[in-house]
Design brief:
By secondary structure, the protein is of the alpha+beta class. It contains three helices and five strands; from the N terminus they run ββαβααββ. A five-stranded mixed sheet has the order 2-1-5-3-4. β1 and β2 form a beta hairpin. The longest helix has 8 residues.
């Protein structure tokens, strides 16, 4: 099974084996990675924000417009930022290294939100 190497914000490294087609968010959750994923992968928040190592970033499919919108409001966004719910493991991504963003924002609970 392919492996994803997650580096948590505290520096903990977790290598997670997952089936091809699994989202990075699902793999992280099953592997015990400290990542929120507040919307359960429905593309409604940015709490599964990952920073992909530069050498792996070019192998990813481009982000669709809805993902780009959420990344624009993600804390610590970088040129290689992606949402874990939108990335799917492929054979070509075996060994991919990603860093869990230091801070995540649940837009539904954000102080900028009008939700009570």
């Amino acid at each position: 099974m392919p492996t994803i190497r997650f580096i948590e914000f505290d520096g903990t490294v977790r290598e997670v084996n997952a089936r091809i087609g699994t989202s990075f968010l699902s793999a992280a959750k099953k592997g015990g990675v400290d990542i929120e994923g507040a919307c359960a992968g429905s593309l409604a928040c940015a709490t599964c924000h990952l920073i992909v190592d530069y050498e792996w970033y070019a192998r990813l499919p481009p982000a669709a417009a809805p993902e780009k919108v959420l990344l624009d409001v993600a804390f610590d966004m970088t040129a290689t930022s992606r949402l874990g719910c939108q990335l799917r493991l492929t054979k070509d991504l075996d060994g991919c290294v990603v860093r869990v963003a230091d801070k995540n924002r649940d837009l539904a609970l954000s102080p900028l939100s009008t939700a009570a």
